[in-house]
Specification:
17 strands; alpha+beta; six-stranded mixed beta sheet
Length: about 450
């Protein structure tokens, strides 16, 4: 199925957001080398053929929103210390691509189970140089039924998922006719989340999880794994609840869905990939620290406000430990999340930024998108029926796993879905492990 691109419009702010050209700083969290990637994802919307033109509605809302969020139209510039800053100049804008496809959203199941090659056509894919010039690129693709998708490619150095969703919610408010946005964006990155003077690392656990290796790049290493493919799996409510109940009966401990299913998926991925038993493997996830730091980040702060948390085991330990113990390691890792951990992480970046900070090989990245307010991004036709991330580089991992809200515009939602990126050779075996989970054959003593 072919997506036809008609043209690209550079959308500028509807009125000048500033008088003079200037530089804007980024925080050490923004400059984390693991976040030096473009994050790509797509939202699908159902409308009717008699609706207003989605491209016009979105381009007008984008122009108005850029008055408040003009850094998205700036240029990323590398400083002498190898960190990035933003160069903001009058006349900058965000490229908005207009595209169409001669099929209906229903014919591609509202993007559920869609061909990966087709999905890739719905989202811009700038190379690193293009992403520096245009850290935000959007694409509106209109389907024959009147429905459309909004594809986004945004530099992770500017914001995380919550920050990007804040921006899109502002766009959506303006598209629905609001004269003002309800949440005013706050930049202030020179003062918030800055390193201490002098910098100091007072959280020993950071030295357990991170090491220094100038010669190692996790995303370059990932190219050695061969083709990485993605697949979505449905997780029904009754299956996950039964799984958590059995873990409770074994251990006397209660686990969240993320802790329990994360443990299952991590083990299944490592087993399916045939990782040597003496290899160290890492479970990495992003934890929102906006309310954790002291003082809390202000409402409206839209920079990177999450920090990487880690669990490390040998592949042998991951295979042989009872499942509840693996889930408990994930649960206990959250206790490391303190204001001091965040400050030490920032200071660690200050002290060792150019020394190749890395969590090592075989990192499995996990992130939970079920509560990011995607459903509120409503441009006038209702929220998206499907939200799909297309990025494969995350948290030093080239095989990330996303917990996603259940798709569909009709009926009661049952459970949610996970999107797994995995080396192609391992996917058949992993698929069998997920089939066992769906059949509630959890194999809690071992897989």
């Amino acid at each position: 199925m072919q997506v036809k691109i008609s043209d690209t419009t550079v959308v500028v702010p509807s009125k000048p957001p500033f008088a003079d050209d200037h530089l804007l700083p980024l925080t050490h969290l923004d400059n984390d080398p693991n976040l030096r990637v473009t994050f790509r994802y797509v939202r699908a919307y159902v409308t009717t053929t008699n609706s207003s033109d989605p491209f016009h509605v979105i381009s007008t809302a984008l122009s108005a929103a850029l008055v408040h969020y003009y850094p998205l139209a700036a240029n990323l510039r590398r400083r002498r210390d190898n960190r990035f800053e933003l160069l903001c100049s009058n006349g900058q804008g965000v490229p908005l691509i207009r595209a169409s496809v001669e099929s209906t959203l229903d014919s591609v199941s509202q993007l559920n189970d869609s061909d990966s090659q087709f999905l890739e056509q719905l989202v811009p894919d700038p190379d690193p140089n293009e992403a520096s010039v245009n850290p935000c690129v959007l694409q509106v693709t209109v389907f024959k039924c009147g429905g459309y998708t909004l594809g986004a490619a945004i530099s992770h150095s500017l914001c995380d998922g919550m920050g990007a969703t804040q921006f899109f919610n502002a766009m959506a408010e303006l598209a629905r006719g609001s004269g003002e946005i309800s949440v005013q964006p706050i930049w202030d990155r020179s003062d918030l989340l800055r390193p201490r003077d002098p910098p100091r690392v007072e959280t020993p656990v950071l030295h357990e999880f991170l090491k220094l290796d100038r010669k190692f790049s996790p995303y370059e290493y990932g190219k050695q794994l061969g083709l990485v493919v993605r697949e979505c799996f449905e997780v029904k409510d009754d299956s996950i609840e039964k799984f958590k109940t059995e873990l409770l009966e074994q251990s006397g401990l209660s686990f969240t869905t993320f802790e329990a299913l994360g443990a299952y998926i991590w083990r299944a991925k490592i087993k399916s990939s045939g990782i040597p038993t003496d290899e160290t493997v890492t479970f990495a996830y992003a934890l929102n620290v906006r309310k954790l730091v002291n003082p809390p980040l202000p409402i409206g702060y839209w920079g990177n406000g999450s920090i990487a948390m880690y669990v490390k085991l040998s592949a042998e330990e991951l295979m042989e430990k009872p499942m509840w113990e693996v889930a408990d390691r994930i649960k206990k890792s959250k206790s490391n999340a303190t204001d001091e951990y965040v400050r030490s992480f920032i200071d660690f970046q200050e002290l060792h930024y150019d020394e190749g900070i890395t969590a090592g090989k075989e990192v499995s990245g996990f992130t939970d998108w079920r509560h990011l307010r995607h459903s509120t991004v409503d441009f006038g036709w209702g929220g998206p029926v499907t939200v799909l991330p297309l990025s494969r580089n995350l948290l030093g991992s080239v095989e990330p796993c996303f917990f996603l809200p259940c798709s569909g515009s009709k009926g009661k939602k049952d459970g949610f879905k996970i999107m797994v990126n995995l080396r192609e050779s391992a996917m058949p075996a992993f698929r069998k492990e997920m089939e066992k989970f769906s059949s509630q054959e959890f194999g809690l003593s071992s897989l």
